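Morning!

This is the sequence you dropped in the shared folder:
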Amino acid sequence: MLITLYLICISLILFSYVGYPLSLIILRIAHKRIYKPYTTTEDLPTIDIIISVRNESTVIEKKIHSLFHTSYPIEKITVTVISDASTDETDEILQQLVKNYPSLYIHINKERKGKPENVNSLAQQSRSAVLVLTDANVFFEFDTLFNLIKPFADKRIGLCGAVIRNSIQTTKGIAEQEKSYIQLETKIKQLEGECFGSMIGPFGGCYALRRELFRPVPDNNPVDDFYIGMSVLALRKDAILVEDAICVEDVPDDIRQEIKRKRRIANGNFKNFIYFIHLLTPSHPYTAYAFFSHKIIRWFTPILYLLSLIPLTLLVINKQFVAIAILQLFLWFAVIIDLILIKRNIPTGPMRFITYFCQMNIALLLGFIDFLNGKKAHIWEPTQRSKS
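The structure's back. C-alpha cells below.
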C-alpha cells in the first residue's frame, strides 16, 4: 500500500508535466480541428477592447499606440480603459491620449474596485460583437488584432487567445525560467485547441470572446481570464490559441514578486476549481480530460508531493528507496545553494529550473492555504516591470 500510494502521487505529477503533453502530440497527429477564418477585413466584426489599469504610467501610452497601429479596420474598433484609482500619472496620460484617438474612452475610478468588477462593468456596457480583453503591459503587433479575430468566422469558436512573447533578454533572477514555462504553456494550449477545441485558460494578457458568451466574474475571484475562458467551454463553444496573433510583454525576474503573483493566482484558481468541477463529467469529455490533466493535477502537485513523502519516509528502510530519498534531499540542497547565488546575480543554468519549479509549487501551496482560510485577493497591484 505504501509503494502504491507513492507511485500514484509521483505518477500523477509526471503525467501532468510529461505524459499529458505527449498525449496531445499523438492526438494532434491523428486529428486536427480546422476552422475557416475571415479572409478579408470587410467581414470582420466590431470589437471592444477593454483594459483595466492601475499605476501604469510607464507603459500605457505605448499600449494605446500599439492598439491603433493595426491592420484591423479602425472604424470597427472601440477602446475603453478604466483606471482603478491610479496614484501616478496614468490618468493624465490617458486624458491626453483621448484627444488623439476619437474611439478611445476612459473611466476613472476614485476608489479601487478591483479588476474583476472593472471588467464586468465594461463588458456589460459593450455593444460590439466581440470583446478583446488585454493588459497594459502587453503590446500588439500590426496584425495581432486581425489574426486574433479572424477565426470567429467559424460559429464554433467562442474564444481566441493570443500568443504572448517576452521582450526581455536577461539571465538574472527567474526570467529565463519563466520564459521557458510560458513557451511550454503556449504549446500545450495550442495543442488543446487543435485536438479538442478546449484550450484550458487563455493567457490573460490578451484574448477575445463573443460578447454574448461573457459571464460576469465573481467579485472574489482574482483570475478573471481563467473564469471567463472556462465559462465559454461550459457553454459548449470552442476555445483556441491563435498561433499568429502575437503580443509582446516583459517577464518577471524577481522570485519574490513572482511567488506573490502566483500565490494570488493559485488562490483564485482553487476557487475556479469549485466553480467548474461540474465540467469533469462524460458530458464534457475533451474539456474534462484537458482540465484534469493540465490544471487540476498541477494545482494539487504540492499536496501530491507532500503525500508522497509519507510513504517514502516509511519506505527508507528498503534500500531501493534510500536512493530516492537522497535524491530528493539533494534537490532541496541545490535549491538552497541557488537561492544564495540568486542574491549575488550569479546564473546557475539548469539548477535554476529546479528552484523555479519548487518556488512555484510553494506559491501553489500558499495559495491553497489562502483559499482554505477564505482569503480574498481580488484587489491587485501591477507586477513590478522587469528591466533588461
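Headline: The radius of gyration is 22 Å.

More detail when I'm at my desk.
O.
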